[in-house]
Amino acid sequence: MASNLSPAFAYIVVYVKDVAKSVAFYAKAFGYPVRRLDESHRWGELESGQTTIAFTPAHQHETDDLSGEVRMPQSSHEKNPVEVCFDYSDVDSAYKRAVENGAVPVSEPEDKEWGQKVGYVRDIDGIVVRMGSHVNSSKASH
Length: 142
What we know:
CATH architecture of the largest domain: Roll
Structural class: alpha/beta
Number of strands: 8
Domain VOC: 8-134
Oligomer: single chain
Region (Disordered): 49-78
Organism: Abeliophyllum distichum
Order of helices and strands: EHEEEHEHEEE
Strand content: 25-35%
Shape: globular
CATH topology of the largest domain: 2,3-Dihydroxybiphenyl 1,2-Dioxygenase, domain 1
Pfam family, one: Glyoxalase
Protein name: Dessication-induced 1VOC superfamily protein
Largest sheet: 4 strands, mixed
Protein backbone atom coordinates (compact mmCIF):
# COMPACT_ATOMS: atom_id res chain seq x y z
CA MET A 1 0.00 0.00 0.00
CA ALA A 2 1.50 3.34 -1.10
CA SER A 3 1.71 6.09 1.48
CA ASN A 4 1.37 9.77 0.80
CA LEU A 5 4.80 11.28 1.46
CA SER A 6 3.79 14.87 0.70
CA PRO A 7 4.23 16.96 3.84
CA ALA A 8 1.64 19.46 5.02
CA PHE A 9 2.73 23.07 4.48
CA ALA A 10 2.76 24.15 8.12
CA TYR A 11 4.25 27.66 8.45
CA ILE A 12 5.40 30.69 6.57
CA VAL A 13 7.75 32.75 8.71
CA VAL A 14 7.91 36.49 8.07
CA TYR A 15 10.95 38.36 9.36
CA VAL A 16 9.93 41.72 10.80
CA LYS A 17 11.32 44.59 12.86
CA ASP A 18 8.80 44.29 15.73
CA VAL A 19 6.88 41.04 16.17
CA ALA A 20 4.18 42.44 18.49
CA LYS A 21 3.49 45.40 16.16
CA SER A 22 3.33 43.16 13.08
CA VAL A 23 1.00 40.65 14.75
CA ALA A 24 -1.34 43.47 15.82
CA PHE A 25 -1.13 45.09 12.36
CA TYR A 26 -1.97 41.89 10.45
CA ALA A 27 -4.84 41.14 12.83
CA LYS A 28 -6.40 44.59 12.28
CA ALA A 29 -5.49 45.24 8.65
CA PHE A 30 -6.16 41.79 7.19
CA GLY A 31 -8.62 40.25 9.66
CA TYR A 32 -6.66 37.34 11.13
CA PRO A 33 -7.13 36.36 14.79
CA VAL A 34 -3.94 36.18 16.86
CA ARG A 35 -3.14 32.60 17.86
CA ARG A 36 -0.05 33.34 19.92
CA LEU A 37 2.37 36.09 20.87
CA ASP A 38 5.34 34.83 22.85
CA GLU A 39 6.08 36.79 26.04
CA SER A 40 9.57 37.50 24.69
CA HIS A 41 7.97 39.05 21.55
CA ARG A 42 10.33 36.93 19.46
CA TRP A 43 7.56 34.77 17.99
CA GLY A 44 3.97 35.43 17.01
CA GLU A 45 1.34 33.48 15.07
CA LEU A 46 -1.93 34.25 13.33
CA GLU A 47 -4.83 31.83 13.04
CA SER A 48 -4.95 31.42 9.27
CA GLY A 49 -6.32 27.99 8.44
CA GLN A 50 -4.13 25.03 7.53
CA THR A 51 -0.97 27.11 7.15
CA THR A 52 0.18 29.32 10.02
CA ILE A 53 1.52 32.81 9.41
CA ALA A 54 4.31 33.31 11.92
CA PHE A 55 6.48 36.34 12.70
CA THR A 56 9.97 36.50 14.13
CA PRO A 57 12.54 39.30 14.42
CA ALA A 58 14.67 39.97 11.35
CA HIS A 59 17.79 39.97 13.50
CA GLN A 60 18.24 37.35 16.18
CA HIS A 61 21.41 35.76 17.46
CA GLU A 62 19.89 32.26 17.56
CA THR A 63 19.63 31.88 13.78
CA ASP A 64 21.79 34.62 12.23
CA ASP A 65 24.94 32.59 12.94
CA LEU A 66 23.38 29.38 11.59
CA SER A 67 21.60 30.44 8.43
CA GLY A 68 22.80 33.96 7.72
CA GLU A 69 21.53 37.46 8.23
CA VAL A 70 18.15 38.59 6.88
CA ARG A 71 18.58 41.33 4.27
CA MET A 72 15.90 44.00 4.46
CA PRO A 73 15.24 46.32 1.47
CA GLN A 74 17.42 49.43 1.60
CA SER A 75 15.07 51.70 -0.38
CA SER A 76 11.50 51.95 -1.67
CA HIS A 77 12.77 50.66 -5.04
CA GLU A 78 13.65 47.31 -3.48
CA LYS A 79 11.25 44.74 -2.09
CA ASN A 80 11.50 41.72 0.16
CA PRO A 81 12.07 38.40 -1.59
CA VAL A 82 8.66 37.20 -0.37
CA GLU A 83 5.13 38.33 -1.15
CA VAL A 84 2.25 37.49 1.18
CA CYS A 85 -1.00 36.68 -0.65
CA PHE A 86 -4.51 36.57 0.78
CA ASP A 87 -7.80 35.58 -0.90
CA TYR A 88 -10.95 37.57 -0.14
CA SER A 89 -14.52 37.32 -1.40
CA ASP A 90 -14.71 41.16 -1.36
CA VAL A 91 -11.30 42.48 -2.36
CA ASP A 92 -12.40 46.14 -2.45
CA SER A 93 -13.58 46.08 1.17
CA ALA A 94 -10.53 44.13 2.30
CA TYR A 95 -8.20 46.60 0.55
CA LYS A 96 -10.01 49.58 2.12
CA ARG A 97 -9.79 47.97 5.58
CA ALA A 98 -6.07 47.28 5.18
CA VAL A 99 -5.29 50.86 4.12
CA GLU A 100 -7.47 52.31 6.90
CA ASN A 101 -5.46 50.23 9.38
CA GLY A 102 -2.01 51.30 8.27
CA ALA A 103 -1.18 49.34 5.11
CA VAL A 104 0.53 51.47 2.46
CA PRO A 105 -1.39 51.49 -0.84
CA VAL A 106 0.58 50.18 -3.83
CA SER A 107 -2.11 49.38 -6.41
CA GLU A 108 -5.89 49.54 -5.97
CA PRO A 109 -7.84 46.36 -6.76
CA GLU A 110 -8.44 45.80 -10.47
CA ASP A 111 -9.76 42.96 -12.59
CA LYS A 112 -6.97 40.91 -14.20
CA GLU A 113 -7.19 39.06 -17.50
CA TRP A 114 -6.97 35.70 -15.72
CA GLY A 115 -10.25 36.37 -13.92
CA GLN A 116 -8.98 37.56 -10.55
CA LYS A 117 -9.45 40.93 -8.86
CA VAL A 118 -6.11 41.96 -7.30
CA GLY A 119 -4.80 44.86 -5.23
CA TYR A 120 -1.45 45.39 -3.58
CA VAL A 121 -0.37 47.06 -0.33
CA ARG A 122 2.79 47.11 1.76
CA ASP A 123 2.78 46.13 5.42
CA ILE A 124 4.53 48.10 8.17
CA ASP A 125 7.86 46.45 7.25
CA GLY A 126 7.49 47.19 3.53
CA ILE A 127 6.54 43.62 2.61
CA VAL A 128 4.23 43.48 -0.42
CA VAL A 129 0.84 41.94 0.34
CA ARG A 130 -1.30 40.78 -2.59
CA MET A 131 -5.02 40.91 -1.89
CA GLY A 132 -7.01 38.95 -4.45
CA SER A 133 -10.23 37.16 -5.13
CA HIS A 134 -10.18 33.38 -5.17
CA VAL A 135 -9.56 31.92 -8.63
CA ASN A 136 -10.69 28.45 -9.54
CA SER A 137 -7.43 26.76 -10.60
CA SER A 138 -9.13 25.01 -13.53
CA LYS A 139 -9.97 28.43 -15.01
CA ALA A 140 -6.69 30.17 -14.25
CA SER A 141 -4.24 30.44 -17.12
CA HIS A 142 -1.10 31.53 -15.25
